[in-house]
């Protein structure tokens, strides 16, 4: 029922207490939006979900993050495997300076797949799933850097889903994109949720309402309120939530 | 600033709705009074001005649509826009019902027991309390508005009971029916205003369902 | 009386088991003459409202409890809610609050009274119900003394 369960999570960078007593359950095959003002911990939070914070000096945590019932911070957790299961799409599209094909194939190769036919099949599947295949099928060997911003972002999504993750984390995936590309990505998210659990950090509240079923509101490193998106945006329980989403404070 | 702009637009359309509502309430009183007194002149004036008065409903609804489309309000702002729209629609209906009452004043009135005047006063109180609740997010005023419905239904029942003995009912019961219907419309407004104030989807129990199903 | 717009899970009275009365609920009791709503949490009735559908007289709180009746004609509907909504409903309908909560047993017993249980009870204790004639004779007999 829940793909991820976060229990009493506290995150510190040296002495700074960045995330405080976070409790959140992410249901399978849904989209959860994380909203809140800049600097309130949303990005730190999602980077905790695939242990990307490990590489930042001074990082330590308390509490638990369970993925399918297993704590991802257990000493015997294989972090490479974890990052296969929990993929990430960043704010600024970051394709490799390689061909379109190689961008998508890269992850597969890194995880030990070397069968050419299998890789070709997966690349096509992933590009189709990312709604990009028709636009690039005749130029798979061309450089990915020649694609538009929106296409590059969809390529990054294809790259992520090629290795069949269970969870996809998205940190403001559309903030660098034009409105039409944004719509395409949102439509894609809508489709992807049938197969993946998606967590998306966004500053754009209309985007949160359009794509997500659940929303969590972060403020000063805490979750003030979380629940169904329609409840948060139409009948928020906490005044701080209401003040934020109605623009009474920024 | 976007926030201040939305706030001021909402505030203006709310003021306009309250003014429209106050005018409607006053027209209810005058319509019934014209019926009771057989005042044809007032009756005609009310009928002639109904369309113009109801233009306000369309303007209010239109402004709310713009607010929704352009500002995408959420939470209490969204609920406020929704209550305002609902109120405008219900007030339009009430204006049409009172125009009919004015028509009956011209067509020839029946006997006029005091119930009609009481019903008129009750409806006006219901409208005024609903508007007060909308304006000030006052749940007590809202409850006062809804509590008055029972009184309205009771007066109507009494009229219906006493009217059984009269072979020619004329249009007394039509006037009473219209006033009862106005009560239903105000209850509709009250439900949306409750949602605005309470922030949860509650509505007032409709006793007329149980009465009808007896 | 303010109630939720989208009624939460309504439990079918006929299949309702005593053990499954929800932690927070309101119960509607309706027949041709009366309608009542009681607010029940755990084992306690904490609020009540009653209306006489003929006279349209409304009563609240303990007075409403006095008017409350469940008979074989009554339709009983149990609506489950959550704590948050329940508290909102109680506050909105504050005039129906009971100053002292009443044990919900009395209502629940009425609701779950199995119509055949009387026969079962009599059977179990081997009680023979006297006929009407027997009762008449008994009364006559008593009067003649």
Automatic annotation (TrEMBL), chain A:
The entry's keywords: ATP-binding, Cell membrane, Membrane, Nucleotide-binding, Phosphate transport, Translocase, Transport
Top-rank taxon: Archaea
GO MF entries: ATP binding; ATP hydrolysis activity; phosphate transmembrane transporter activity
InterPro entries: AAA+_ATPase, ABC_transporter-like_ATP-bd, ABC_transporter-like_CS, P-loop_NTPase, PstB-like
Domain ABC transporter: 4-245
Database matches in CDD domains: ABC_PstB_phosphate_transporter
Membrane topology: Peripheral membrane protein
Entry annotated with the keyword Cell membrane: yes
Gene Ontology CC: one annotated term: plasma membrane
UniProt subcellular location: Cell inner membrane
PROSITE patterns assigned to the protein according to its UniProt record, in alphabetical order: ABC_TRANSPORTER_1 (PS00211), ABC_TRANSPORTER_2 (PS50893)
Tagged with keyword Hydrolase: no
Protein's GO biological process: phosphate ion transmembrane transport
PANTHER family membership: ABC TRANSPORTER I FAMILY MEMBER 17
Protein name: Phosphate ABC transporter ATP-binding protein (PhoT family)
Organism: Methanothermobacter defluvii
TrEMBL record, chain B:
Free-text function comment from the UniProt entry: Plays a role in the regulation of phosphate uptake.
PANTHER family: PHOSPHATE-SPECIFIC TRANSPORT SYSTEM ACCESSORY PROTEIN PHOU
A GO cellular-component term linked to this record: cytoplasm
Keyword rRNA-binding: no
A Pfam family of this chain: PhoU
Compartment(s) where it occurs, according to its Swiss-Prot or TrEMBL record: Cytoplasm
Key words, A-Z: Cytoplasm, Phosphate transport, Transport
InterPro entries attached to this UniProt entry: PhoU, PhoU-like_sf, PhoU_dom
Protein name (Swiss-Prot/TrEMBL): Phosphate-specific transport system accessory protein PhoU
GO process terms (BP): intracellular phosphate ion homeostasis; negative regulation of phosphate metabolic process; phosphate ion transport
Subunit description: Homodimer.
Family under the similarity heading: Belongs to the PhoU family.
Chief site of localization: cytoplasm
Domain PhoU stretches: 19-104, 118-186
